[in-house]
Prior knowledge:
By secondary structure, the chain is an alpha/beta fold. The chain is built from twelve helices and 20 strands.
Amino acid sequence: MKYIKNNFFVEKVNLQKLTKKFDTPLYCYSYNKLKKNINNFKLNFSKLNPLICFAIKSNSNLNIIKEIKKLGLGADVVSKGELVQAIKAGINPKKIVFSGVGKTYSELNYAVDKKILLINSESKSEVMEIEKIAKSKKKIVDIGIRLNPNTDAKTLNKISTGKKGDKFGVNQKTFIELVNYLKKSKYINLKCLSVHIGSQIFENKPYEKMLKVIDRILSKIKFRFNYIDLGGGMGISYENDKKIFNYTNYQKSIIKFLGKYNSKIIFEPGRSIIGNTGILISKIIYIKENQSKNFIILDAGMNDLMRPALYGATHRIIPVNKTKKYSNKTYEFVGPICESTDKFLSIKKFQKLKEKDLIIVCDVGAYGSSLSSNYNLRPKPAEILIKGSRIIIAKKRQKLKDFI
């Protein structure tokens, strides 16, 4: 993704021309960037030979998942819908793990029938429910137990999942009790210890602390797990700071940990695979001026991209066509939704803009389209996947008749 003679291109496609055909708002993904991210992830952990299960919640587009499957990844799912989508995309059930704190009887029943690799259980009650289902079907079901390691991921509170106050997983006492109980179960085969401490993590220390907690528990219970599922959470840079997670150090820590335990590693990356592959193209509807700033009112709103309103997340905004004329005023980029939180970013010294100009919201591949909604009864945008000069409609633009 780059400018060529002041015009923004995704691979070999000019976005100005693309929007004339597909209109805005428009999600657009780069296949080559997706492939590069997956290959880099594999390379960074090549000494571990892990099972990599893409977190479907980060991007649930069927055609994107199909491409991810072709590149060798499995799936991490958190609902029956995501499990159905993963199987529909052709992912082998034996490369699918099912996470989530509130799996219903219907969801668990479906997962058991599909013979997926693991159901990562997050409570004693869920383990009992799985055992009941397995007994009724006279099957042995492979599961993991998700441990809450009480580890601060040093990230936003709203995307922290591994502290004792978070709803995810079980504490150490319950974990040990469940392991001892399941040693005697006729219908459940305990195969995995699972953890996930949060998202958008850049420091290695939280992961190292997490591994020490796991090590301490394993040394107590003396139980061999076939798999250690370490979740995901590796961060990407959303601003110009170019922050990069140190995969080399993390791999070293895991190799050291595995010196004592012969288990296969599972990862559940989402954002680090898909986040920087996607952009959201939007058109300026109106420019509304006041004394201190100009409101740039876009045709994309918080229903199309929820992260800024939900988390206070920052996404860079750049023009589709560059000029050398700049404004001294502050531009506040906002959407058309009837909410004060429907705003994306305030920028000083942006290039001068006019109505009908096109802008790009960057790095929206993760939790962009998957968090979108029909709030204010607005249709969801089209999604385009670009492979070189090929333009693939990954998802058609929704029409009002589709949901009214």
